[in-house]
Design brief:
The protein has 242 residues and is of the alpha/beta class. It has 8 helices and 11 strands.
Length: 242
């Protein structure tokens, strides 16, 4: 296979790392994710990675239970650092050189996020995991993924989830759910489809960066999408709503 892209931003939800457990990180899933990412790097693709924190702490959920939203979001961003270090460890055990760059300064465990340094890591063939969101509350890791993708000049955002694309309703709850092959940014916003939050979609639309939503649990799904396969759902500018 030959890659369609030189540099991508891969977004993985924290919940994906739980596997069948109710909380935390499944080492079995962690190893699986690392193997799937390694397949992409073997194609010569430069990979930036953003990982959510829903398996440890979700800021919005904390705020909904009475916690100060800014405090809850800061806790969520710290949780992404834990997930990032876990994925880094799994990658480096497979011989893939990986750097974690945090929007929160944590010099004893990872590098601070510096855009030019991140790009230099890519040029040296390293995976870069962007942790702690963008260091500011009230932004989700989805929005952070779009921002980092734009900063590093990624050609596509691949969002790996628990479902095989974007549907008109929850496929886990309704057998009548219909999958979209392609969507425009405007249609995602108009229909309030749960691709990512509105801020992230709007930012992607304004900068015309495509988003592929696919199932993380299907083996080779990410590497096939990188090579132009029709996996999942493609969100792109064309469409009747544009």
């Amino acid at each position: 296979m030959e890659s369609k892209y030189k540099r991508i931003l891969l977004k993985i939800s924290g919940e994906a790392l739980m596997g069948s457990t109710d909380f935390g990180i499944s080492t079995e899933i962690l190893d699986y994710v690392a193997e799937e990412i390694k397949k992409v790097t073997n194609l010569g693709v430069e990979v930036g990675l953003v990982i959510g924190a829903g398996n440890i702490f979700r800021g919005v959920a904390g705020a909904s239970k009475g916690m100060d939203r800014a405090t809850a979001d800061n806790m969520g961003m710290l949780a992404t650092v834990m997930n990032s270090l876990a994925v880094q460890d799994a990658m480096e055990r497979r011989g893939v050189v990986t750097r974690v760059m945090s929007a929160f300064p944590m010099p004893s465990v990872c590098e601070p996020y510096i855009r030019r340094r991140a790009i230099r890591h890519f040029e040296k063939g390293r995976i870069v995991i962007f942790a702690a969101g963008i260091g500011t509350p009230y932004f989700t890791t989805d929005t952070a993924a779009v921002i980092r993708a734009l900063e590093i000049e990624a050609e596509v955002i691949i969002k790996a989830t628990k479902v095989d694309g974007v549907f008109d309703r929850d496929p886990h709850k309704d057998d009548r759910a219909v999958k979209f092959e392609t969507l425009s940014y405007a249609e995602v916003l108009r229909r309030n489809l749960k691709v990512m939050d509105a801020a992230g979609i709007s930012l992607a639309r304004d900068n015309k960066i495509p988003i592929v939503v696919l199932d993380l649990n299907k083996e080779n799904n990410i590497s096939e999408a990188v090579c132009g396969g029709s996996n999942g759902t493609l969100v792109i500018g064309e469409g009747t709503d544009e």
